[in-house]
Write a structure and sequence with these properties.
With about 300 residues, the chain is an alpha+beta fold. About 25% of the residues lie in helices and about 25% in strands.
Amino acid sequence: MHRDSQRTPDEVSHYIAAVHALIRDASAAREDAYFGRDLSDQPRMWTAAQREAEFDPEVALATFATPEVAIDPVALAQFLRDRISADRRIDVRLSHEVLSVEDSDGLDVSMDTSSGVVRERFDHVVNALWDGRFAINEKRGLRPERPWLHRLKYGVSFRLPSGAKLPPSATFVSGPFGEVVSYDDGLTYLTWYPVCLQGISKDVTPPEWATYPAEPLRSHLVEGTLEAMAQFVPSLRALDPRELKDVTVKGGVIVAWGQTDIYDPASELHRRFEIGVTSTGRFHSIDPGKLTMAPYFADICAGRILEGSRH
């Protein structure tokens, strides 16, 4: 818990306990429900000695240990690509930009391809786009009645020099902070909101922000993130950005409901749970909120498609 947190240690402790109770109840009688982790024990607060060994105690006012698992999204993406390519029932159309979805005897999808604009008809259409989802929905008259924000945020990953101590995996709450993740294969990931947030848009379609930033922004993100987080994560202080290996700076769009940034304690961005599947006929739009919710909502959407196909 950062000293500038928008919540008190007691508030965070009660919230973590309440969420854990819900997770434990939902996973009852399923020992492997969460990657084989034991969910019977309550999350615990670190002792002062434990906290001081890993963080600057003047900045980290409290630390809570939870069973949360961090999955490398790059490795996960490769598994998904391999699974898709191995299934002959999935027809992959690369370099196809969806322009619109119109009602006909089925649903006609217009796409811009290297051969020009083409149209194909489908029984069901699932809009699982990320930053392009609102634009397709709006063309069908499905403009949201609430404000939203597209935010561009970068992260920095690298491998430590030989013999360097791995920093502890931690998410700093609650407010415009960040996280550090140490993966089992030695990869370290950092992101610090004040440095890594590089764009905000309220447009239906955000700008075409660069996934990989060019110089001098790239160096600024690496050095600025490391400098900011080293102030309260001692294991990062001895690192020289020039000596890090396999450095990758990569960004992406965060899509969420809200009108003000997370610097505002009352911002809707702090309530990322108002998400789900919206179906109008055989057109389905999925707002997963975060990647971790995508499998759950995909299952719900698949159920609706199967049910709709029976009628």
